[in-house]
Amino acid sequence: MTEMPLGIYLPSVIGGEPSGWLRGALERPLLFVAPMHREAEAIKRKQTFLFCRYVLILATGALAFIEVNGEVSPAPVAVVMVLAILSNVVLGQVSPFAFFDAWTQAPVLVSDTAMISACLVLTRASQEFFFFFFFVLIMAAKLENLSVLAAGAALIGLASFLTTDLSAGWISPALMRIPFFFATGIFFGYVVLPERTGQMQGFSRPRGPSYIRPPAPRVTKRPSVGESALRI
Fold it and tell me: In terms of pTM, does the model score above 0.70?
């Protein structure tokens, strides 16, 4: 019996002469092709997503703790940060294919926007700060170049820093706004951009194994004894 070059094969005879659909299946072996490259791509993108989200959480927490004044307790900010980190740990257990479904991504984006807004409210951020933050979100939804988005977010952070009290110079705690807006632009752009450019098409888990059905082999019909006698 000749081995098939790829995947698995079915033997041509199992306990005698097969009949019906079983014979057809035996004459046409199914070859299994595992889409390993799609799984590796999904795992890599998931790890990058979680890393960008960790950076955003840390940048948000650092900014909130720096800008909180003496009249506000930092405990609520600490609770929000702990919950955000725990949620990232939970997301790490999700399947890489189900990770990028709309039912998973949408709650994450909404919760992260709420997390950042809550931290800004707890630190009593100014209206200008909220304006810059939502402007970065609009940029992430409109721009199709991640490098341009990152540069624009950093410039917005610099503009936000320049609108604050510059009496402390370049050692001002408000300087943390630049990495915060940069991390915000990178994270939201990394999530939204592939959906807008179509790079995530066909990224879901295949519904079943992929099979390749080779062409049916030609079967030469042997003449019966009666036909041989008639020919003679």
Answer: no
Mean pLDDT score of the chain: 74
Distance, CA of 101 to CA of 82 (rounded, Å):
25
In tens, the pLDDT along 95-123 reads: 888 887 778 888 888 999 999 998 888 88
The pLDDT value recorded for residue 85 is 94
